[in-house]
């Protein structure tokens, strides 16, 4: 292996030198997939210590985007950027190994004279703060016995506050440097975020570069794309040469120096094949090993993929979006081959289209998740988080947008929350909510109504939105479907029409209903029977589209709003947790002749991405302010140009990020849990905090960036602008609507 690395490095350096000698371009045939210069706010900088520059875009990855972490505002004083903090401020930083460290905190006191720090919940010695008006530096020793490899939690608590601009402020923090106790006396001045990027002239050529001291380290956490290549230009200012290295580390694997060399006063360009790391979250260290004055400059570090022509698909004429209420992904064989549930129509549909293996719902119950599907907005933006909330008229639904583009629009909805009372009736030429209208909510009837409407509008362009509710409580399939999964006699407490009330009582604390093993088998059989029955009606609907001559030119999207828990984590039903049985939902697209048949995508995506994907495949302009991302490139086998992650909420007390392989759950008290979704898809085992340090840091940093974003449509950007935020409105909840929702098992 070492010989291979030496050969690889030699070849790479030869490529770098050849540009000036043979005028060849080492980046020919490649295009940028991830621009690491633009993402320098997500880089961690070591220059005499790991440096945290507060009051800048680099802050969010250390402070959970300031969500519930005590940081309450930012400001500028001359050349100093700072962040204000109340009685306590939380900081999350990484350590490569357990060792004695010191935190050098530059701050200005306001309403306090003392700082009491905690490291990983262990109280440390208090620090007396000076009384001057300016910023001063204070040292907090971090003992080795409290430093963990991987992520560490530093809590700063203060003794008082003073009001400033309507906020109760203890201190303003300029920076924190986390340093080894050895060799810190000669540490260079801290590199500010704003000074990292510079115009660097080497010889006759000037380039924009990230320029740090010759002994610095620039660290990124990234997901390596398929067929990925790392590219960078390197040079050194000042006298003499500077050794440098690029090192890549994946969780559970030894670090690999994929590139070493000597930076000189001329630019050299380098590429490194990353195919061995494809699909993995890795840490990339760009490291200098020189001495003396002058800077080591990294020009355009980036992840590259082979050039590909933009997709040119003939637009679909029509679109059908089907939301199968309360259908968790692992009930279907395309997502869980071990599932016992028979769904031949879904399996046929998947064989003709593309399945997203790790689609996540933005919330765990109907109203917010459907609002995200139809608006392309995150729940924090559209604010449909309570039973009383309603979409305002300012909300733009996919129905309104397509109506403006000349489509006929029809909705066929069997869930009472997706109703006119809650603002979902906007933009439909024909709007039907069968709960509100007292009609049949049986899937057969809903599909028949939708099919009739489609037949009437088949000569023009149409958008049909269908939301069936058969797998939702009350579970009451015909006996033939129940017997498929529970053929023995049953005389217990579970009655089909009572399942909504029973599950609601079972998830109360303490539970008012307790199910024994026999009851559990019956409940599972009822739910599975409903899924199989629904599949038959779905198959008949697909056949009808074919008979109408619409199958080849109609995009069909199949998904769910959320799943259902069957005592997986000690509860029942939905709307109460953020485990995969509630958030992991099916997502499938079919457009014959344009999207691949039998295609599979393993990246984490959100159902919030549906509307932007639909508009792209229809060949119409995207919805303004849409916060989702089109998934077309992924379906065509091309890498995404943004992180393959999905964000989910639960009310205001849970924030979740799902990556390709892991899931980080952040609670309102800022405790967190990481799960390995590949080895443990059922989330039975919480990972030790020191496990997967690179994956954990990657998830934490991206979640912090997202939570700190004011523009969630461009949440990854360093420069945040004002984004979309809908003003919350509340619906009038009369007894009729309450009774209709209670009939579905919602307690009101």
Write a structural description.
There is one protein chain. The protein is an alpha+beta fold. The protein has 15 helices and 41 strands. Strands 2, 3, 4, 5, 7, 11, 15, 18, 20, 21 and 23 form an eleven-stranded antiparallel β-sheet that branches. Strands 25, 26, 28, 29, 30, 31, 34, 35 and 36 form a nine-stranded mixed β-sheet that branches. Strand 13 and strand 14 form a beta hairpin. Helix 7 packs parallel to helix 10. The radius of gyration is 28 Å and the shape is globular.
CA radius of gyration: 28 Å
The rounded distance between the terminal residues' Cα atoms is 64 Å
Name the structural class. alpha+beta
The best one-word shape is globular
Number of strands: 41
Average pLDDT taken over every residue: 92
Mind summarizing the main beta sheet? 11 strands, antiparallel
Helix content: 10-25%
Put simply, the count of helices is: 15
- List segments where confidence is low: pLDDT < 50 over at least 5 consecutive residues: 1-23
Beta fraction? 25-35%
In short:
By secondary structure, the protein is α+β, with helices and mostly antiparallel strands. It has 15 helices and 41 strands. Strand 8 (114-119) and strand 9 form a beta hairpin.
List the helices and strands and how they pair.
Layout lengths: L1 H21 L7 E6 L8 E3 L3 E4 L17 E7 L2 E6 L2 E8 L5 E9 L4 E6 L2 E2 L3 E2 L7 E7 L7 E9 L3 E3 L2 E3 L1 E10 L16 E6 L2 E9 L3 E7 L5 E8 L5 E9 L5 E8 L4 E6 L7 E8 L6 E12 L11 E7 L19 H8 L2 E7 L5 H10 L3 H4 L6 E2 L7 H7 L3 E6 L16 E4 H4 L5 H14 L5 E7 L10 H5 L15 H8 L10 H31 L6 E6 L5 E2 L5 E2 L6 H4 E2 L1 E4 L8 E8 L3 H9 L13 H4 L10 E5 L3 E5 L3 E6 L4 E5 L16 H15 L21 E2 L4 H8 L6
Parallel strand pairs: 25-30, 25-31, 26-36, 28-29, 28-30
Antiparallel strand pairs: 1-24, 2-3, 2-18, 3-15, 4-5, 5-15, 6-12, 7-11, 7-15, 8-9, 8-10, 8-12, 13-14, 16-17, 17-24, 18-23, 19-22, 19-24, 20-21, 20-23, 26-34, 26-35, 27-41, 31-35, 32-33, 37-38, 38-39, 39-40
